Amino acid sequence: MPDDFLQINNQVAIPLSELSFRYARSSGPGGQHVQRTETKVELLFDLASSSSLTEAQRQLALSRLGGRVDQLGVLHLTSQTARSQLENRADVIERFRRVLAAALKPAKARRPTRPTTAARQQRLEEKRRRSHSKRLRGRVDQGE
To answer: What is the extent of the structural domain holding 38?
Structure first.
């Protein structure tokens, strides 16, 4: 039973039945082998209507994976690095797991900080120095 699910993180597990695959011929050199076998693997995951994600997770993933998701909300990932379809399939599944885990990772909350006393004093000193050098650029009084 655990083989039927792909564990993304502690909260999310995607059923393998929600993933669909398309196979095509890989590009590049390779002679007869590459011209006759369909080793390129494309993984398709319907992110917009997945029942294994909550609405908040779905919206977060859609916003963070914008370039990889089409207008229908389907995530597309491809792999053609290996010469075997099985290796490319395993590679694209692992990449899917990492990409979705990164997209679902909550953003780190920003803790507001204040500048240190030394930093404040350094900034004011720099402002005084700059002000002084600009004052020296003014017109010279010819009356004296």
So the answer is: 2-104
Residue type, 65: L
Is residue 138, in this structure, part of any structural domain at all?
no
- Total domains, the chain: 1
Q: Considering the domain boundaries, does residue 125 fall inside one? A: no
Q: Is 141 helix (H, G, I), strand (E, B) or coil?
A: coil
Interval 45-73: pLDDT, tens = 988 888 888 888 888 888 888 888 888 88
pTM: 0.68
9-22 CB burial, b ≥16 within 10 A, e <16: eeebebeeebbeee
Q: 3-state class of 104 per DSSP? A: helix
